[in-house]
Amino acid sequence: PQVSFTLELEFSCSVLLDRAEVTLEASSDSTEATLEDNTVQLSIPIRYEPDLFLSSDASLHRYEVHPLGTFPHGPGPEFKTTVKVQNFGCYPVHNVTLHMALPALGYRRATFLSVTRVLADNASCVLHPSPEEPGQRGTVPVHPEDLLHVDR
User: Fold this and answer.
1) Can you list the GO cellular component terms from the UniProt entry (predicted)?
2) pLDDT, tens digit (0-9, with 9 covering 90-100), for 47-100
3) Among 25, 23, 24, 16, which residue's Cα sits nearest to residue 45?
4) SS3 of residue 42 by DSSP
5) Under a CB-based contact definition with an 8 Å cutoff, are residues 56 and 82 in contact?
6) Which residue, 80, 82, 9, is CA-closest to 42?
7) N- to C-terminal Cα separation, the chain
8) Predicted TM-score of the model (pTM)
9) Distance CA 111, CA 102 (A)
10) Using CA atoms, how far apart are residues 85 and 96, in angstroms rounded to an integer?
11) Would you tell me which of 16, 33, 67, 81 could form a disulfide with 58, CB atoms 3.0–4.6 Å apart?
12) What is the largest CA-CA distance in the chain?
């Protein structure tokens, strides 16, 4: 006969384990010639699921894009965007990488956003400028009429 069952293990937040080890042994009242295959020991690596929360807040919630050719000379209004990554789980999380793509080019590749500084608390940040060629990981220029149909 064959028996199938499911083991459900519950772990404590105070003790972090790398592996779970389970020993299974089958026994019977009957006489059996091969007792050596009645025991199996399983060792399973444990991976903990993170409970990460990502939030952001900006100091400027509205920016007016002027008609073509009327971009102001010099920098526009400065705004601060705060991005926060929080671990709400009870297990530590290592090597978290967050990639952000900021739209920066308008029609005819007019720049309407530039990063002036990056402040990091308990993190290391690297600013990579977008490649010059559209279609790669850079920003594709947006025609002013296309802005009527997008909400962000």
Assistant:
1) external side of plasma membrane; integrin complex
2) 888 889 999 888 877 766 666 555 556 667 788 888 888 989 888 888 888 888
3) 16
4) strand
5) yes
6) 9
7) 62
8) 0.52
9) 12
10) 9
11) 81
12) 94
